[in-house]
Amino acid sequence: MQENKYINRELSWLQFNNRVLQEAEDESVPLIERLRFLGIFSNNLDEFFKVRYATVKRIDLAGKTGKSALGGIKASKLLEDITKEVIKQQSESLKILDKIQHRLRDEHGICVINEKEVSESQQKFVKDYFLSQVSPALVTIVLNDLEELPSLKDSAAYLAVTMEMKAPKASRKITNIVSSKKERKYVLIEIPRSIERFVMLPSDDDKRYIIILDDLIRYNLNSIFNIFEYENISAHMIKITRDAELDIDSDLSKSFIEKISESVKDRIKGDPVRFVYDKNIDKDTLKYLMNKMGIDHADSIIPGGRYHNRRDYMGFPRLGSKELLYDTKEAMPIPGLALQTSLINGVGKKDYLLYAPYQSFSYVVKFLREAALDPRVKTIKITIYRLAKISHIASSLINAVKNGKKVLVQIELRARFDEAANIKYAEQMQREGVKLIFGVPGLKVHCKTCVIEREESNGKLKKYGFISTGNFNESTSKLYTDYTLFTANQEILKEVNKVFDFFETNYKVSKYRHLIVSPHYTRATLYKLIQTEIDNQLQGKPAGIKLKLNSLSDYPMIDKLYQASRAGVKVKLIVRGINCLIPGVPGMSENIESISIIDKYLEHPRIYIFENAGNAKVFISSADLMNRNLDNRVEIACPIYDHDIKQEIIDGFEISWSDNVKARVFSEKQNNAYRKKTKPRIRSQEALYDYYVNKNENFKQ
């Protein structure tokens, strides 16, 4: 066994984000989609600093090394390593952005111009647009006379304006005034989020012109500061990122909604953890700003390019050019389960599996809408983690209450960066009569499940429901791949009800024969399942482990997989994000292979497959193999009993495993090397779509 058995979690995450950056660099990806990957890369990095970097910084400031929790690296050293890697990636992202914009200009006549490139015919539009749309929304702060800087918004972009003032008229005749240091005024302009970042300009030729809002403001600096007598003026962008950890009040007189709401508001006071600045900014201006903002050595200080908040590129204009975007593929129906018929009756006869976005998420909404209308449905229970901005899920639940159903919603108010949205929905549903539960003390509720009870013709209540690997969110269902099992298996749904009982009576811990439930049983059950594969391997029986995850970072679980490898068990891992396991090391993990797939859709399902001596056990789950999912969250892994559905999930895993276009291979080098391209060319997300097309055609025959 080698000394360093794990990849550090934070450094592994940075390599995941580097894979996102690889998609932005990939010339086979349509150009506007490449810009969007740059936006995702930037947005991911913002969240990383708000949460993970902030956590490591707190460990360092507390005077602790954190080595046991950080994979053997001291917190202070890790902060340095993160900053070094981020500077490298940021530099690469700027080069990629420049290449993309050159291709848009040269090959497609789409010109992203700056303030110095505005033509005479565009000047009036730029000035009028600024005066009518932008100027009223600007927040402009003159810093010189302020003893204390107003709190800058987390991740907002600011133009740091420096004005070199003209000398007073009475002093201009003094000969040595030229050699004296000129007075400067320093101003911050907040880039308004309420206005589109990319502004389309009029054109008098066959090209299309876009100016970024930052440059449109730069063009109009004189309009803003014409009351000042200055000789020179410049504007460079800065951005500050703050610690986003919620500090929840312990006041017993306040409701949980009040506590979370106040904590979210208090984020604006979080300590700074990252400062990004335009590398061309004047040194004196930079020094002044850093002193004013209290930026110190423990913060990550990143020299960047001219534009920050590149996350806005996720919303770059579509421009009506199909060749610049991914092909739009229509989501398919589930064979044998028509949206035009009763889904509840259909699910009552057999289990069905939905794999979004290859198949339509409308089945989830239709199931709830039907339950809201069916006079025989008595109760609906559902967990909610992240909802769409306009949620048909929420409206269906409110509709059910209006039709006399008892509706119980477990809503997780602490879903990271969706707290405010969930509070809004919670208050709306509460007003309409939905019964809400706000989680379990000390645990986040991350499982995704729903169970309804309907009175059948014989007068007995029968349960129907679904269990998913992802959120009940119509927007992300078009972008994330996730499994949802629709079932009327009474034993499984009885156990789902036990989970809801636990939400209400936390001191009672039920036992489960079918579901694997965190935080009480997942770790021990997975250890047992892995041990069974080890025993089978040693006894000469078929053995193997296949896992598809978002993240793998729990060290004891990794050690158990290392143990399986040493026993000769073949382990295949598809991990999209963090992966702290080092595969392919002789004597430790030589029987473990691991890949990551980054492509058009975000790979989101969690799948556990155990060979089990030839009678495979297959589970879909909401839980990654991270400490938080195993020990600090309520999660559900659901067994798949239907033979056809089990085979469908295994087929899906094997198609993903065969990817030789978008698969990167994990190794000790952490270099995100693409899997060696062999024939036939297999891009798994395209192959999966074809798999479901064939499935539908075969069903029709």
Automatic annotation (TrEMBL):
EC number(s) per entry: 2.7.4.1
PROSITE patterns reported for this sequence: PLD (PS50035)
Record: residues binding ATP: 44, 480, 576, 604
UniProt KW Kinase keyword: yes
Domain PLD phosphodiesterase: 599-629
InterPro entries registered for this protein in UniProt: PLipase_D/transphosphatidylase, PP_kinase, PP_kinase_C_1, PP_kinase_middle, PP_kinase_middle_dom_sf, PPK_C_dom2, PPK_N_dom, PPK_N_dom_sf
Keyword Kinase annotated: yes
Keywords: ATP-binding, Kinase, Magnesium, Metal-binding, Nucleotide-binding, Phosphoprotein, Transferase
Binding site for Mg(2+): 386, 416
SUPFAM superfamilies, alphabetized: Phospholipase D/nuclease, PHP14-like, PPK N-terminal domain-like
Record field: catalytic activity: [phosphate](n) + ATP = [phosphate](n+1) + ADP
Domain of life: Bacteria
Cofactor(s), by name: Mg(2+)
Pfam (any one): PP_kinase
Entry comment on modification after translation: An intermediate of this reaction is the autophosphorylated ppk in which a phosphate is covalently linked to a histidine residue through a N-P bond.
Annotated signal sequence range: none
Active site (record annotation): 446
HAMAP family assigned: Polyphosphate_kinase
Family statement drawn from the similarity comment of this UniProt entry: Belongs to the polyphosphate kinase 1 (PPK1) family.
Function, in words: Catalyzes the reversible transfer of the terminal phosphate of ATP to form a long-chain polyphosphate (polyP).
NCBIfam families, alphabetized: poly_P_kin, PRK05443.1-1
Protein name: Polyphosphate kinase
Organism from which the protein derives: Zunongwangia endophytica
Biological classification of the source: Bacteria, Pseudomonadati, Bacteroidota, Flavobacteriia, Flavobacteriales
